[in-house]
Amino acid sequence: MSDFSPGQRWISDGETELGLGTILTVDARSVTVLFTASQETRTYSARQAPLTRVVFGPGDRIDTADGGQLAVERIEERDGCVIYHGQTDDGETVSLSEAKLSDSMRFHQAQDRLLTGQVDRNDWFELRYRSLHHHQRIARSPALGLAGPRIDLIPHQLYIADEVSRRHAPRVLLADEVGLGKTIEAGLILHRLLLTGRVDRALILVPSSLTHQWLIELLRRFSLSVTLLDEAQSEAFDEENPFESGQCILASQEWLFANPHRQRQIEECQWDLLIVDEAHHLDWSPQAEGPGYACIERLSARIAGLLLLTATPEQMGLESHFARLRLLDPDRYHDLERFREEEAGYTAVAAAIEALEQLPGDAAARDRIGAIIDDGDSRALLETLLNPESDIDQQQSARRQLREQLLDRHGTGRVMFRNSRRHVGGFPERHLHVASLPMPAAYCDQFLELREGNDHFAARLTAADLGTHDARLYPEVAYRALHDDAIHADTPWWQFDPRVEWLIDQLETLGSQQKVLVIAHQRQTAVNLAEAMRVRAGIQAPVFHEEMSLVERDRAAAAFADDDSGCQLLICSEIGSEGRNFQFCHHLVMFDLPWHPDLLEQRIGRLDRIGQLHPIDIHVPVIDGSPSEVLLRWYRDGLAAFEAPHAAGGDVLEAFGDALRESLDDGHEESNGLDSLIEETRAFNDARLAEREAGRNRLLEWNACRPERADAVISTVVEQDNDSALPRYVDQALDVFGVDGRDLGNGLMHLTPGAHMIDSLPGLAQGDEGFTVTYSRTRALARDDIQRLSWEHPLVMTVMERVLDSSLGNTALALLKHPSIPGGRLMLELIYRTHCPAPRRLQLGRFLPDTGIRVLLDESGTNLSDKVTFSGLSRNLQRVKKGVARELLKSRHDQLRELLAEGEREARRELPTLVERAQREMRETLDLELSRLKALSQHNGAIRDDELRAMSDERHALDTVIESATLRLDAVRVIVTVDKDAR
Ligand SMILES: Nc1ncnc2c1ncn2[C@@H]1O[C@H](COP(=O)(O)OP(=O)(O)OP(=O)(O)O)[C@@H](O)[C@H]1O
Question: Which residues contact 583 (CB under 8 A, 6 or more apart)?
């Protein structure tokens, strides 16, 4: 039978910060507890609940729910619950059921243990003190959540991660150009939000070709273990909802979007953050919305935080782009026409920002700025800037602030972040190599039929489920479709297609050391090409396409990445052109060309991404006189699409797509027509780029990275990287927990579970092989197989939590031999900790993390903590056997009680200062942010009302919680002096 009864009060062993819990329900298998102070409800297995029953005895003082105290005189049990009888502070005799105890009750566990003779090792006590100290320090650090991940410190990424993760329930579009690190940005944001408690559960939806890459990236770079779900795994859950099986769930978009049952299950769960990669696939138009869009629209209405990732936001057209912005903020983006018009205003905003440099003195510049700003703050700044009496520093500061305000209040930036290569810099050149190849007779006939508009031929294509447009661009597909019979079985297209021969020659010329990525538009072309390589040249090339299983795809990509596998070549269908990391290779073969310029850019982006060390060689084999040759010329000469990312490819295609289709048809017979199409395309593209450059792009770039802020974030991260306290702390922790650390030299250490390990730690349970660690970011980045230890590494965080959430080291007794202190004296070192239960989402740690107050009393109750430091004292202490310690404690019981009471009085004196400081910091931070948001919301609809309301509620809740902070004794060490000659 269970010992639990509804109404009883218990505390969580592992999470004492939840406060005092009340049993709500009990059945044979489970027990549900409500922690009112922290607004949490937990259900545990009844047999192994990590809970401790709270019952007080005569003589104890207990806090009551109405804010008073009761001195317990006697207790009585009724129906499994306790009734306390005693006196209130007013001397009134009352009886109080345990249900009426304060939910934020303090527990004198250290005191109870000490007075009952339970003492821990001295080094445990020291580890406890240091854990508390570092825990509070790290919780307040502005680098929190950004310092731990194993990444290079790249300014634009850290800026975005910092900016976005400060917001309440961020909803943004991460739209950096291909390969600039959107996944890393999303990982950083997720990591920080999880660490700070702003997010408890996250759902990550990515194209199936990227699930594994995300899984690995989140684990290796962010030490985040996410649960990857697919249909097979989900079926194993029977009746249960598989999406409840982990804190962070990763799933493929294709699977989910095609599965209404799983969508419903997802909608039944509670999520705080949704991340959607390659979000350009979510297509929408006023007439119809794609299934992906519809699914994400429903989810985004229920989930507070939303990160959409895409390098090519306009790939599916401006309407879809607008619709995705609307998902992020429906209040702001509700009218497509207005959205189109707004873009025209960006040029004026950008011009006003530029005009700031001409002030004071230039009347036109002043008018230009004056025409945009319409709030008091900005006007005051403008006046400072214009005032002849302002000195240079005042002017510069006003200019900087005004620039920020113009961007912030009138720009594009709160929802969308887009960095470009041009702005970030340091990317390699791209070199285009075109190979002109002869037209084979079989293709020539096909193109002729297409050009002549032969109805019979078109009908055959239709019967084979192929459009004429695809037949033009992908002749091998048409050939295959039209000759799918026994007669042609011996002459597959790859026997005569000159691109195959060319590829074989090219591989030989480059040499087997050069990796080559081949992308073909169609899956079957990729499969046939791999066969051709094997049959014609004896080359085994892995293939990567949409009909392979995830495991097969990842195996193919891994074989290509592996230097020892001997795989020179990977042949992908178009799905290989999205999201994957192939920057270890720098030769890209476009076996054919995609129709959309954004797809072309996605293809190049596989190689041209962060980490690429060489110029990119783009090889395009093109058949003379084929429609692809026309497309190539249009891309190369009209859009300059092979040189650098093009900013307006979608617009250009919309304007010239029809004419281009006609040109594909005409081929070279109409070369004048093609020349003028290219000329017109170039002029349109240049004009559109110039327009965007003057307006939207400029604002986006200015907003996507503010270098001073990025530098400030980076310096706080670097400061943590260089924190010499970390190795000291880790050494001590490993020693206490019984983990063996073997020095491997060169800054590396291998950790294994020791024979007497006291508790299992992540990756270090008995039987585990352990792992190799380094403190150096550079070394960790160079080797995937070693982990980087930081204050945010799961091992370090778990150690801190285990120590602080348990009673480990909360009592100790040591001897002090000091020449100037006579033997037999007693000292008491008391560590108090602020106690302030609050819901995790309030992220109280920013302002009032669990804070330690140290009080050192001598025998007479004099406070010596300012004179004798913790380290100074610790260095001079000696261990004492437990039995001796117990005897000593027994003999000094009364004296200890008095000193404990005195210690509490001393510590309490410091509490108001801590509370005031926390409140001041909280108000300064939130009031500033709130007033900024309020000012912004008058001009920029991108600020949502609920964001303002939530911040104001948060401020209020924090104020109340901080005000209610109390202290509890966390640990106590008794120090007994011994004569200097004693042995
Ligand atoms: N700060 C960093 N430190 C180390 N590696 C990085 C960093 N940023 C990006 N990378 C690497 O660069 C590559 C590109 O990054 P990522 O995949 O995040 O880019 P992306 O913008 O999401 O790309 P795409 O547009 O193709 O989806 C990845 O291999 C990633 O691991």
Answer: 179, 606, 607, 608, 609, 610, 611, 612
